[in-house]
Amino acid sequence: MNEQQSAEQTVETGYSPLHQLLTGISDWIISHQTALQIACAVFILSAVFTLLYIFHKFRRRVNDMEDTRTNIDPHTGKTRPAVKSVEMPKVSNPDLDGFDTGTDTPFKNNEVVPEEEAAKIDSPVPLGTDNTAAAPSQPDDCGSVKESSSVPEPVETVVNEPPPKPTPPIIAFTFQTERDGKPVSFITNEIKKRIADFQIPNATVDTDYEFIFDFSIDELKIVSEQPEAQPKINSTLTDNGFSVELLEGNRIRFYGKPKMDYNGKIYFLHQTAEAFQEKQSKRAEGQSEPLYNNFQDSKPFIINAHPKSLWKDLPCVGTDENGNPYDNYGDYENADSVSSGEVVSYTSAKSFEVIAASIRGRSHAHVGKPRDDAYYYEFDGRQQTADGSNAGWNFITVADGAGSAKHSRKGSEIATRTIVQTLRSALTAEFTKVIFTDRMEQIQRWKNEFADADGKLAPETEKEFVEKSQLDKVLYIAVREAFVKIHNEAEEYKKKHPDTKINDYNTTLLAAAFRWFPELNDGKGGWFIVSYWVGDGGATILDDTADAVGGSRKTPRKVFVLGEPDGGEFAGQTRFLTMKEEITEEKVRKRLRFTFCDSFEAMLLVTDGITDPFFPSEAAVVDEPRWLEFYEKKFKGGCYEEPDGCKEIFDDTIDPQKKSEALLKWLKFWSKGNHDDRTVLIVRPTTFVKPNN
Amino acid sequence: MRRLPIYLLIDTSGSMRGEPIVAVRSGLQSLLASLKQNPYALETVALSIITFDGEVKNLVPLTALEDFQIPYIDAPETGATNLGEALEMLLQKYDTEIVKTTPDRKGDWLPFTVVMTDGKPSDTLMFKNMCEKIKRYKFARVVACAAGPKAKTEPLQQFADDVFTLDTMDSSTFSKFWQWVSTIVSQQSQNVDSTQKDELPPPPEEIKLVL
Fold first, then answer.
1. Reported pTM
2. ipTM at complex level
């Protein structure tokens, strides 16, 4: 017994004073449980409120600072005028309401976001705009519209108040998790990891965009049954042209055509289906409960401005931004765009039209520099043919003044006019009779050879042809004359401006002379074309003889490319008419082309402002199928497809002058990185008759 | 599509740690932002970033300006300045990334390169070899910048067309430097088709040309 007693004794004495104290406290706690809970709640709540108040104040300061920094109009670069603050109406999207993405805090209790902050959250303010102007007229929840003008304006307190920040882009979704019938808690981290790994490509204004956020995680299912729980984006994104949809396999497709540029972050809000349901039921009880409030992740997101919107269109003469007058024409004026069209009633049966247009490139317009391209054409109606109809020579030409040469627009103008006028005075009726008409048999033999060889004269024949026709001499004289005229202009200009060089007038030249010979093909007639081409650009004839004679040719339609482009070793280099070494008989002869064709759909002369965007290389510019593709798909196709298109070009009831205005419209097509002057000259057969004729 | 390739070679050696590297980051931000406001640049410029310390990294391969996203650039605690190796990588990238004109394809514009360092090359032998090799490559321009008091200009003059110095390495000087780079690039993108080398736009007074 003694032993037992002593054991009990030991046990009893085991209660230390500390133990007794703790037991006492716990007893007390148990008996005062409810009161303590209340005390704790009061303490914690007040601490939370204090912290949030401090945080809110701090954020206001940060916002103020940021707003003054960003108070610059992104379009003009000027500081915006101080905006008078107006009371922001509470515009809420019931699904994404209550969000604040002002920080990257992963957990944020939105219930205590102050009213004023909450109002900013999802106001449908487009990015990059002055939101104070846009927001006040938006209807609030109840559909009523608050007018900003109805707000009194106590001047002293409102001036200089910065405008509220636009809401950043938000994507939100709800998900279910399940493994062996139980929710999985680590999924949130998986989602965060996924978001961190997304490589979101940059978007561009006015350009289709798509990115798929892949959340294919085994235990996860993005909720889509209830409309409110479906993946969503906020109005900042919808207003900027974006949409979102859920694809199979937990992938969210984010797509659209943005309207405004943005450089910042995109936010991801995600929550569990349980959290969603809890909020739903609170809503059902009448509590104002936002649908998302947990887990924020963010990634950088950039929407580039469209380069289109950045190009300026400055006049060549005007006043610069500092108020100083400038004149970029100097002594050589040139209209920003020009177009013309003319119909030529050629023989009793054949009429054709010339339609031409030329526009100043973006790169010139951006800095107020003039257009350097030129075109020119003339028809010689004086020559009577054997059958009594008007079948004189016709001359067409385009030229591209070098962008780097300061007077090149004068160079291209002189070149085009001189070559036409010199050729015209050389190719007289008499000359034509001696060289061609009196030797039709020989010419016909050449023509047959040309057709047999699929559009190329055999070197022997060509040599004979050149020698007999003397066309090489005629062309050489005309080319040299163009060079001399430019040279003289430069010399004249040099008297006033000593540093002037002929290089300042650098220009390319593409020219063709064509005539109908009724004697060819046993009196059925045929076209003969002689052409010269120095520099880049392109010149072709789309032959449609096959169509006309019932398709005997292997290739249904033939394209004759009238020369070869000259490209340099590096991008942007070419040859110019104004280079002395180009002015030799041998060089000119190398650049000559003789072409026979019984019937054509179109002749085209274009500068490199056209070939660059449509032909990926120099090889492509001499590739016949490429020209067919260009003509059918890009040019004709473009004219028919565009809502504001130019299909009247192909309508024979329309005056060619009108058509040239349509061509001018087509020339304004958008092509990234191609911003040179553009010139097109088309010759096409027509049945159009001028009303007065 | 003909691109105007821009290679940025940035020194991330130990001495760049701290304010200088932070300044480089914000400088890149402002470079990118101002280039994006220039329509010529936005349509033609492609950028690449090569960083060099004890290790050379091609942080971003040649990427069109519109698709470009600024990477996180960091400097290690310590590290050598392997500029020679960086130039080697530049030339290697030149060979593989730059499209040359062929009959079937229009080539890129000549590339433009900016090198920024705050020291002197540690890999002297490699550096010497690369200075020889780079002469066989065509660039629109190679601009080198010696930042801070410890940077040596002599080695840079062996390969660059123009060498500049920044006396201080604070963020305001750095940001002026990158602003100026953006002006050069804008000018370059505007005049790609002119055959002669343009005068550089005048640098701000903190940046001095080494003659």
1. 0.72
2. 0.87
